[in-house]
Specification:
Layout: E1 20-24, E2 27-30, E3 36-38, E4 42-48, E5 55-61, E6 70-71, E7 74-76, H1 83-95, E8 99-114, E9 117-130, E10 142-149, H2 161-173
Parallel strand pairs: 4-9
Antiparallel strand pairs: 1-2, 2-3, 4-7, 5-6, 5-10, 8-9
């Protein structure tokens, strides 16, 4: 099992004490001021966008981790932002598309390596309807925008584990011919 991310935290974030010790497997406690810090997962969004030709919008990752592999638009939620607001913002930042409506589909736990730290996330998958699928442009973290016919969608081409697992689940939910296709 990988080292718990709390092992990277040496000082109490409230008083700065170095007497910041393990409280249990998911928290640390300061022996000086008594503060208990729980390391909880961050919220992250994933946009599932399907065009009128029933093709899935994918992007090619422009940055590590998983540079060059396929991904779905999305990213970390900002403070004071709902998941729905976050997915709208991320789609705009990565593709230039404007999201009209958002429907929660499911969530997948993930570990996202960043700056030498494993960031535990809860990836929230949303079905997003956009005003227009025309003019999607790769921006921000996306190197390329692709529209994939469902028969060409391969979970193993998606470099992040949670996205690959989510795409596998989507194939059973939304792809033409699946029992749950919308």
């Amino acid at each position: 099992m990988a080292q718990h991310p709390l092992s990277k935290f040496r000082y109490c974030p409230v008083c700065g004490s170095s007497r910041f010790v393990e409280n249990n497997f998911k928290s640390k406690r300061c022996e000086d001021c008594g503060f208990v810090y729980y390391f909880n997962p961050s919220s992250s969004t994933v946009a599932v966008i399907v065009n009128d030709e029933n093709q899935l919008l994918a992007v090619r990752r422009a940055k590590e981790p998983a540079l060059g592999t396929l991904d779905l638009p999305g990213g970390f939620c900002d403070c004071y932002e709902t998941g729905e607001e976050g997915v709208r913002r991320e789609v705009k930042e990565e593709t230039g598309l404007d999201v009209e409506s958002v429907e929660f589909l499911f969530s997948v736990p993930n570990v996202y390596p960043y700056g030498g730290l494993d960031i535990h996330t809860i990836d929230l998958f949303f079905l997003c309807r956009v005003k227009s699928t025309k003019g999607a442009t790769a921006m921000d973290d996306a190197a390329e925008v692709l529209w994939l016919p469902w028969q060409e969608v391969r979970p193993e081409y998606f470099g992040l584990k949670s996205i690959s697992l989510g795409v596998r689940r989507l194939l059973g939910m939304l792809a033409p011919g699946s029992a749950n296709a919308r």
